[in-house]
Every structure is written in C-alpha cells, then in structure tokens.
Hints:
Blueprint: H1 2-11, H2 16-26, H3 35-41, H4 59-63, E1 80-82, E2 87-94, E3 99-103, E4 106-109, H5 110-114, H6 117-120, E5 127-133, E6 140-142, E7 147-155, H7 164-169, H8 173-176, E8 179-186, E9 189-197, E10 204-206, E11 212-213, E12 218-222, E13 226-232, E14 246-248, E15 253-256
Antiparallel strand pairs: 1-15, 2-5, 2-14, 3-4, 5-13, 6-12, 7-8, 7-11, 8-9, 9-13, 10-12
Amino acid sequence: xxxxxxxxxIELTNHRLTSAALRNFSRSKMSKxxxxxxxxxxxxxxxxxxxPLHDYGHLHDLFIRELKxxxxxxxxxxxxxxxxxxxxxxxxxxxxxxTVFHVKxxxxxxxxxxxxxxxxxxxxxxxxxxxxxxxxxxxxIHCPVDGIIKRQWQLGGRxxxxxxxxxxxxxxxxxxxxxxxxxxxxxxxxxxxVKVGAMNINTIELTHNGEHLHKGDEMAYFSxxxxxxxxxxxxxxxDSDIVEDTEVRVGETIALLK
Length: 258
C-alpha cells in the first residue's frame, strides 16, 4: 500500500483532478515527512545524492534530485553511444517503414512517434531503444553522444501512463503522450531523443543551453513518471547486443557508432 501511494505521487493517475491533487501534494511541504519513507521503500542510494536526504523539502524535490559529480562515469570511447538515463532497457531493435515499435503487446508507428512522415523518413532502416524509468530511478536526462541540435519540438496534449501497465493497455501512450523531441546531428547522421511525459501532467523541463551538446551533458529532467526513446538513423550505429529488460545507468555504453 505504501509503495502504491508513493508511486501514485510521482507517476500520477489517468484522471486530471486526481493527478493535479497528487502533483500539488508532492510539491508541497506536507509531503516532506514522506521523503525518508520514499527513499527507504524504493531503496534510493542517498550516498550518491548531491544533497543530504533531510535537505529535500518535498517528494518532488527528491524525485528530480541531482547526483554528486562523478557518480555516473561517462564512457569516453569516441565511438560509444551511452544511455541517457538510469532505467530499464525495455526494448530495442531495427526500424522499418510501417509498424516498428512493439511494446507490451501494442504496436507503435514511427510517424506517430515523431509527428509526421517527413520527420520519420530519415529513420527508416535505423534502430531504436526504449528505456523505462521507475520511481526508484534518477530522473535527469543526459546527452548520449556528442552532437549538434538540428531542431527541437513538442507533440501531444493529453497524456497516458508510461508504466508497464500503461504501455500495455493505454491508448497508444508513446505516440499520444506529451513529448519533447531533440534531434541531433552526429557527423551527418541523425539521432532523435524522445522524452515522453507521463499521465496528465506535461512536465519535461529542459536544462541545456546552446546547440552544441557533449556526451554526458544534462539535457532535461522529468517531473513525473517517464520513458525515453532513442531513434537512430540508418548507419549511425552498429547493431547493439545489449540485453532487453536489463538495468542501465547514465553513461554506460548501449551501442557503438559506425
């Protein structure tokens, strides 16, 4: 019951009024007594947090926590593509025109994900990675590779769950949820970093400045539950051998650039 309550506060529900109430509570001082129980319940490692646990004023403050410098070493190989988040590698595979994403029994179309046929075309015959973040995970997003921002856009209005049940039974959550897409140019090849918001609260906060991003730079953070999808243009990476349903951390290699 305790874990369900805490999860509701940071993943929210599919009802707007309930979501708003939980959002307001999690950002208020009233939720401060739950900070330590939340950390214990989800086994957060307070030794890696930038601030001591007692310094977090409410649950949301803890949820978007920063980590101490050096806590997430970034693989410095020139040709490595690293994980942008702490999370579960839910799925990855090759892309083709048509039905490409297979998530918990549902199929998702890349045109829906990126918003148009024009945006999707460069990624046909490429590769994708889907990373799911649970309440226990660090919720800041880092750049997976050196690159230059080609463009950045937002899609979606109403949001649906992006937890395991939401992915399976929701109304095409990855394509319809609010999302912020950052498209990078990497030596002439494209990488789309799709940050998918959760439930009814569209909260993806961008933190980067300028158009040049280096591997490991912080890009954004999720205020509430979240999923990240990486979409790679054909020829950007070699085939990845990372195992699905395994946990990855920011900075760990998930594929190699060609």
